[in-house]
UniProtKB/TrEMBL annotation:
EC number: 2.7.7.87
Subcellular location as annotated: Cytoplasm
The protein's name in its UniProt record: Threonylcarbamoyl-AMP synthase
UniProt lineage: Eukaryota, Fungi, Dikarya, Ascomycota, Pezizomycotina
A Pfam cross-reference name: Sua5_C
Domain of life assignment: Eukaryota
tRNA processing keyword on record: yes
Keywords of this entry: ATP-binding, Cytoplasm, Nucleotide-binding, Nucleotidyltransferase, Transferase, tRNA processing
GO cellular-component term (any): cytoplasm
Homology family: Belongs to the SUA5 family.
Length: 497
């Protein structure tokens, strides 16, 4: 269990959740001559001449980021972030205080444009540190003409704005507060793809340090209500832009080492990275428990630091394993997260239920109301409304003969594409927690690690993947999903029967 921040622990602030419609925040004006859609991240401006409630809220949030030491929660395309001005120590300390987490984990710094990042890497007070480097070294160190190391250029072209964080050398002197980097000589940088995140950073005019906006150890928040549930009373402002599209955090890559390394799997896959110049040999640098070749039965709990964990006990089944019947026979509340193959367990049916009342707000209504396709085409900052995230549904015994005694079983069917599983996973863990389940059984998915030839399983529904095996890119997103699940789980089942 992480040691939590003890100072000023009592939640006393009045927390407001402010829906902001991305379609109303105005057109961006690219400062480059090229096509807006492809190059606007070089340097861009927001047309602030229009005035409406959405822009007013964004400007207020930007003011808070500039002047207050209480962080502001905002949506990104991956998960909600808890932002603070990365150049002010007191503001950054506010993040650790609100999250109640130890300050030894470095934070990602978010930028709205490449110009803003280059300005930070090239502090005017001193000559650039790479100016005496030989050209051969500039792939990792940057050059006078571009302080962003050349190794990252193909990735930036391909994936920014987007779910990719680059590890960069800290400039000297560094404008970043030391609390951001946890004493490292590098820092993580990302330009997010969410229009509200971009507009907020732009209006603030500062680099924004932001970890995921959850309380320490809980799953990352993928909608405003998750943030509210964790940080109510600890922060003042949550910008609500609806549910996040990706649902798992950004991929973190280190191109400063040779060969380059993936430090955290996430929204950009290994396969996609390998297609880029200089990244063909990228290595996996994160530790992930794999069940390959392990003995049968559950692993001992408490083998690792828990993270992304709901309060309920999480039991992860590797892909291809059947849900154990005895798990459902125990008395207590049970949650089931189904992904690719599991069906509703034998002996159970869906109870007729109205959609969870808060499902609507979670799925972006009314904040995204009024979004129409023509506005989205006009405004590259606007985004397509994402499909809904499934809520838990109650299962009831299908016949009176049922011998199953569990008092309550809740089912979350994330049975669709790997992308939809990523989007809905953290929400499912949190929803089941809110329902007070004692244990959550999760059907893992094939990431090429946990499954062995000859595994048993229900193989009759390949149709979920269009009747084909998962593509490499799907597998890589699956790796990000399983990485989070292995961290959340207390026990895992390698083999079921
Ligand atoms: O999608 C995301 O990345 C979200 C949204 C809000 O942008 N942010 C996020 O931040 O997940 P956080 O603080 O929860 O995770 C930051 C990750 C950690 O794994 C941290 O160790 C790594 O980035 N990191 C940050 N700076 C680093 C550095 N200098 N060297 C190595 N790893 C670093
Ligand atoms: Mg986090």
């Amino acid at each position: 269990m992480a040691k939590i921040h003890q100072n000023g622990d009592t939640p006393t602030l009045n927390t407001r959740v402010l829906p902001v419609n991305a379609s109303n925040i105005g057109k961006i004006c690219s400062k480059s001559k090229e096509e807006i859609e492809t190059s606007f991240i070089e340097d861009w401006d927001l047309d602030t001449s229009i005035s409406n409630p959405d822009i007013t809220l964004l400007k207020q949030a930007a003011d808070e980021l500039r002047h207050s030491n209480v962080p502001v929660a905002f949506p990104t395309e991956t998960v909600y972030g808890l932002g603070a001005d990365a150049t002010r120590s007191e503001a950054v300390r506010g993040i650790y205080k609100a999250k109640q987490r130890p300050s030894d984990n470095p934070l990602i710094v978010h930028f709205s444009s490449l110009k803003q990042l280059r300005d930070l890497l090239r502090p005017s007070a001193s000559p650039h540190p790479s100016s005496h480097q030989a050209p051969s070294q500039q792939s990792q160190t940057g050059s006078d003409s571009d302080p962003i190391p050349a190794i990252y250029h193909p990735l930036i072209k391909q994936f920014w704005p987007g779910p990719l964080t680059l590890i960069l050398p800290l400039p000297s002197p560094s404008p970043l507060a030391p609390e951001v980097t946890a004493s490292l000589r590098t820092f993580g940088a990302r330009i997010p793809a969410h229009p509200l995140a971009l507009a907020l950073i732009h209006l603030t005019g500062r680099p924004i340090a932001a970890p995921s906006a959850n309380a320490s150890t809980l799953p990352s928040p993928t909608c405003a209500e998750h943030v509210f549930s964790d940080l109510q009373g600890r922060i003042s402002t949550i910008l609500d832009g609806g549910p996040c599209d990706v649902g798992v955090e950004s991929t973190v890559v280190d191109g400063l080492s040779v060969p380059p390394v993936v430090l955290r799997p996430g929204g950009v896959s290994l396969g996609e990275l390998r297609k880029c110049d200089g990244w063909e040999d990228v290595r996996v640098g994160y530790e992930d428990r794999s069940l390959k070749g392990e003995a049968e039965g559950p692993r001992a709990p408490g083998m690792k630091y828990r993270h992304y964990s709901p309060r309920a006990r999480v039991v992860l089944y590797e892909a291809g394993k059947k849900l154990r019947k005895e798990g459902l026979e125990s008395v207590g509340k049970v949650g089931i997260i189904r992904t690719k193959r599991w069906k509703i367990p034998d002996g159970f049916d869906l109870e007729n239920q109205a959609v969870d009342a808060d499902q609507k707000s979670r799925n972006g209504e009314p904040s995204q109301n009024g979004t129409d396709a023509s506005k989205e085409r006009l405004n590259p900052l606007a985004r397509i409304l994402a499909p809904p995230i499934p809520s838990p549904r109650r299962l009831i015994p299908s016949s009176s003969e049922s011998t199953l005694t569990s008092s309550e079983i809740w089912d979350v069917p994330l049975t669709a594409s790997t992308k939809a599983i990523a989007r809905g996973l953290f929400s499912a863990l949190r929803d089941l927690d809110r329902l007070g389940v004692d244990v959550i059984y999760v059907e893992g998915i094939d990431d090429g690690k946990g499954r062995r030839e000859g595994d048993e399983g229900e193989r009759n529904d390949e149709a979920h993947d269009g009747g084909t095996r998962d593509s490499n890119e799907e597998k890589d997103l699956a790796a990000a999903i399983m990485n989070r699940l292995r961290k959340a789980a207390e026990v895992e089942f390698a083999v079921t029967e």
